[in-house]
Amino acid sequence: MSTHPDGAIDLDTTTPPPPPPSRRRGRIVAAAAAGALILSLMTATKVAGRGATPPDAAAALRAAAEAAERSAPDHGEARLVTIRQFELDVFPSEDGGTGVDRHDFLVRERIPADPEEPWHRRTRELAPDEGWAPDRGADTGVVINDWQGVCGDYFPTPGQDPCTRPGLWQDPTPVFLAGLPEEPAALVARLHADVVADGAELDAAGLEQESLLYAAAALESGIAARSRADIYRALATLPGLSMDPQPVVLRDGRNGTAVTLDARGDRVEIAVDTGSGEFLGWRRFLIAPRDGLPAGSVTAVTIVRVTTPRRGRRRTSPASRGCRRARRGHGPDAGDRC
C-alpha cells in the first residue's frame, strides 16, 4: 500500500494478501485473507480535494439525491452496467469444522437506448483477486451465463409482454419504478412491505437493514437518476443509519461516502458519491464473530459502474416505448424514472 504526500491511499498499487489456497473452497482461515483484500478495495483514510463532508448519514444521502437530480437526464441513452461481486458462503466441512466457498464474479449488462431492443447480460466467474483492477477482468475468467432478452427479460413468461412485467427490487423494470411512491415515508413503507412479503422474520433493526439491501439491489442495476434520488431520500429516513468518517475509495479512482446500518451481527454499507449522485456499491461484513469467522470479515461486496458506450450510442425520445407503457396510469412524469 502506497501513501501520497497528501495522505490519500493509492489502492491501485496495494499489494493484496495471498489468495485462498483453492479457487473455490478453503478452510475458515482463508476467509480472513479474502476479506482483507476486499476491505482494502473500498476504504481509505483521506481524500485530498474532495470537498466538504456531509455532517451525517441522512445529510449525505440527501446530498446524493440532489446531485442525482442535477445530473443530465439519462433516459434515452444506451448504458453499460459493470458489476464486480465478491461473496463468501460458510458451510460445515467434512472434518466437522467450518469452511468457506468463495465466489468472484464480473457482470456486464448492455442496456440499449430503446428498451424494446435486446439487452445483453454476461457473467464471468473469476479466480480470486482477478478482475478487481479497473483495467482487468472484461475478458478474463469463465463465462457462466450469456443472456439476451428484450426489456431485460432474460426468462420471458409465455403470454406476458416482457416490457410490461411487474418487476421487483432485484429486477427494477420500468413498470416497477413507475409504480413506486416518491414520498420518502411511503417509499420506506413499500420497502418494508416487500421485505415482509418475501417471508423474512426480522426484528426492527433487521427489517431496516434488509430494506437497505433491497434498495441497494435496485440501485446497482443502473436505474435512472430520478429513481435514485427518490430512493436516497427514502433511505435517509431509516433509523439507525450512521456514516463512516473514512471516505470510500475505489481502484478506478472514484470516491464517495459510506452509509452504514448494523443488525444481526452484520454491518451493511452502501457507498454513494454525494457530488454526482452516483451509486458506487455496497458491502457486508461481520461486527461480531460468527460461524468461525472473526469480526471484520467481509462476506459480500458489489462495486458498480454505469457508463454510456461510445459505440452504438443513440438517443431516443424520452417517451421510449417501454417507458411510455410504464407511464400509463402513473402520471406524465413516470417515464423519467425508467
Topology:
Elements: E1 2-3, E2 9-10, E3 25-27, H1 29-41, H2 57-70, E4 79-92, E5 98-111, E6 118-125, E7 142-150, H3 174-178, H4 184-197, H5 204-219, H6 225-235, E8 242-243, E9 248-249, E10 255-263, E11 266-272, E12 279-286, E13 298-307, H7 321-327
Antiparallel strand pairs: 1-2, 3-5, 4-5, 4-13, 5-6, 6-7, 8-10, 9-10, 10-11, 11-12, 12-13
Helix pairs in contact: 2-6, 4-5, 4-6
Provide the succession of SSEs: EEEHHEEEEHHHHEEEEEEH
How many strands appear in the DSSP assignment? 13
Hey, roughly how much beta strand do the residues contain?
Answer: 25-35%
Report on the biggest sheet: 11 strands, antiparallel
Helix content: 10-25%
The protein's oligomeric status is: single chain
Poorly predicted runs of 5 or more residues: 1-51, 312-322
Overall 3D shape: globular
Mean pLDDT: 79
Count of helix runs: 7
Spatial gap, N to C terminus? 41 Å
Q: Please give the radius of gyration in angstroms.
A: 20 Å
Helix/sheet category: alpha+beta
